[in-house]
Amino acid sequence: MTITLSNSKEVNVVELEKLYNDVEWYAYTKDITVLQQALLQSLDVLTAWDGDELVGLIRIVGDGLTIIYIQDILVLSAYQNQGIATQLMRQTLNKYKDVRQKVLLTEEAPDVRHFYEKNSFQSCDKGSLVAFALLN
Hints:
By secondary structure, the chain is an alpha+beta fold.
């Protein structure tokens, strides 16, 4: 298996829907046209491919100068725990290494916490930061 990375925001809608549904992010695929438009309007999108199959994606929003927000990072379940998400994360963090604020919100789960801590993120419950969210 050879995984290749691509920086194109234009992703085939079928591949996009397959990836998001595979990780059960159904809220994103209720309107796949909106998801596809969100990718196009993002600051950056890095995708991982096994041949013609989309196996992973990281999506960045923000200004790219003072703040980036990691909106999505996901890998097909059959490809998880093979370092693909780490590769996507490291390439992104390297690209934006001079940006002071790198932010993400995610669900609380031991494996999720481990992944982000392994990639140098600190939980707001362990430091002097506070996080607020307005949820609809």
